[in-house]
Automatic annotation (TrEMBL):
Annotated ranges, domain FAM20 C-terminal: 197-406
Name assigned to this protein: FAM20 C-terminal domain-containing protein
Domain of life: Eukaryota
Alphabetized PANTHER family for the sequence: DENTIN MATRIX PROTEIN 4 PROTEIN FAM20, EXTRACELLULAR SERINE_THREONINE PROTEIN CG31145
Catalytic residues of the enzyme: D300
InterPro entries xref list: FAM20 (IPR024869), FAM20_C (IPR009581)
Record field: transmembrane: 17-36
Family from the record: Belongs to the FAM20 family.
Amino acid sequence: MSLKKCFRHCFCCQKRLYFMFVALTSLVLVSFYMMVNNEKTLRSTNVPPWIKRLSLIENIENKNYSSSLDQLDTWISPDGLFSPKCNLSEVTEALRNAKIHGVELLKLQTSYKWQIILEGGHRAVYKPMLLPKVKRPEACNVGCEHPEYEVAAFTVNRLLDLNNMPLTTGRKVIWSIDIAPVASQDLLDSVNITEDGDVCFEWTCLHKTFSTRFCFDNGEILGSLVYWLERPVKTFKSKHHNSYYHDYHPYSPNKIFRSKLPGDQSFCKEFRDKPPYTDDKWFLHVIDMAVVDYFMNNFDQKHTYIAGDDGQPYANIMLDFGHSFCQAKDILLGAAVYQCCKIRNQTYEALVRLSGSLRTKFEELTAGDPLFPILLDVQFSEMEQRFKQLMTLIKFCFLFHGMEDVIMD
């Protein structure tokens, strides 16, 4: 065979080998594709519940929620933390589902809570549900908090168009999947896992007045998640003989009851003449807080605000409603309303819109929350009763002072 024919023969062999390799590779790829599809079909028809749950978590992790949460800081203005035009459903979904990157105990607190680091570095405060909903607080502002009341207060705040509470939602977490892999050592050390797989914690309150142990079945934990504002948060201070209560605003029920402040019109004028309440903006915030406290039967209200770049008060915010719906009932909760006989026009219009539809609108806003139903029937009944009482107080103010003098812009 000549050299030329030899080269031609080798070239033809190489071509045949190449086409055989391509055909064989294609056959392998097609077989693998069919096998994967058949496996997916089998998985979709007969999947154990725990596998489904892991698949759901995997899908959630693949979605980036950080950009949604980034919006929250840009929404803050002197008028509130967000406006009715903001897409709260998007950021609420993000807060419920964003991947957790870190968890640690929040110490120096009077109630049990965690600080959670979400994807993108966003922070939030998580309050596990330690007590069943059927057990109502016997006293005010003591003992374990109820996370569902945080969600309830946030909903009331929205219904009143105040929009000055940090985004709050219920969230379910699984200890072994969401928390344990990223938990701080002190949190891990406080946990005891039983033979049945229950996750138990022991906690002593800040003032060491009581200790408690609580367990979660199979490590499944429900609680409230409150977005952590990455801004300086401060409290207006007021002079008082007991320094502990100087954090409470002048009409805070906790302060009124304990210090026996005057219960007549003169007290309204007295505090109205002192900064920052000489400014209508901050004065009306006290009235708004009294309205929300009256709805929630809340005794732990402080006048908290976000400081601006210059350190001065920028925007009013409301926090901490975990001790609401306590047994004590007192009209002093609405003292700022009926003593000052002033109310913001926007707040009054929102109250009018809620007349006869408070529960319906409340449940519409909370229908998708993991803690739903947020309130018990008895709590709804009490809230509706307090709503009627509040409207009666405002009508008396209209009667004695005239609507034009009572309503403020």
